[in-house]
Write a structure and sequence with these properties.
seven-stranded mixed β-sheet, single chain, 7 helices, alpha+beta
């Protein structure tokens, strides 16, 4: 296999090209279908995923794919594989809200080797290679230096099956709102994590995420100097609620949210 940096360069080129599909479709009506009551898919999701799979296949020969629109909901990555969310924030896309991300990560047996989150309508592309730092449009980026929750802007998201989790969601909101500077719900977890990595958000938490929602973003946060764990401070396993912070706020955030994860 080529070096991670060489693969990242190729991956960045491919992901940026896929962003042209998003921009091209932006001005056209969306053909929207429902995977669930509020879980949407458009022709753009399918077109971007097809493009990525076709072009990434030659970048790392033999690597498999775990992609939102063509993989089972509970499937987990194994071996060497690309983890893809072609349009993270499909509801944002349908309503032409520009926080729409394409998330691509290369999984290598038990860890993310590299990750890219492209936000084409904002002309921002975030990237990281394990051990190599994190970047936005090629410039180094770092998490914020906020030291108290009072100074923290917190991001969160709501799972599509929120009706069965409503009590837990409201419990966490009631805890965070009075303690923080504010709360944001951007609608695309990969973008939330990129925003933690570049210091726009100080904390992000969400339950019910799939591997394609956070694999690339998790590496961005870690390589930018932040921390990502479950709500008990342990290594994050697929299926667990995620907590990402600038590191300085991880202890206070765990103290606040940990008791809700039971």
């Amino acid at each position: 296999m080529a070096s991670s940096q060489d693969i990242l360069r190729g991956c960045l080129d491919i992901v940026r090209q896929s962003g042209e599909i998003v921009r091209e479709h932006w001005a056209k009506p969306s053909n929207v279908k429902h995977k669930g009551r509020i879980d949407l898919v458009t022709q753009t999701d399918l077109a971007v995923e097809t493009f990525l799979k076709e072009h990434l296949a030659g970048l790392v020969p033999g690597a498999g794919f775990l992609a939102e629109e063509s993989s089972a909901a509970e499937q987990q990555p194994e071996g060497l594989c690309w983890i893809i969310d072609p349009v993270d924030g499909t509801t944002n896309f349908v309503h032409r809200i520009p926080q729409v991300g394409t998330s691509v990560a290369l999984w290598n047996n038990d860890h993310v080797e590299l990750g890219v989150v492209n936000v084409p309508m904002m002309h921002e592309c975030f990237s990281a290679v394990r051990g190599g730092g994190a970047f936005c449009n090629g410039a180094p980026m770092a998490v914020s230096r906020a030291e108290t929750l009072t100074d923290a802007l917190v991001g969160t998201g709501f799972p599509y099956d929120f009706t069965g989790r409503l009590d837990k969601i409201l419990e966490r909101l009631a805890l965070v709102l009075p303690k923080s500077q504010g709360l944001r719900r951007i609608g695309a977890a990969s973008v939330d994590l990129a925003y933690v990595a570049c210091g726009r958000l100080d904390v992000f938490f969400e339950a019910g995420l799939k591997p394609w929602d956070f694999a690339a973003g998790m590496l961005l946060v870690e390589e930018a100097g932040g921390r990502v764990t479950n709500l008990h401070g342990g290594p994050l396993r697929f299926g667990e609620a995620l907590l990402a912070t600038n590191g300085l706020l991880h202890g206070p955030a765990l103290e606040l949210l940990g008791p809700t994860d039971n």
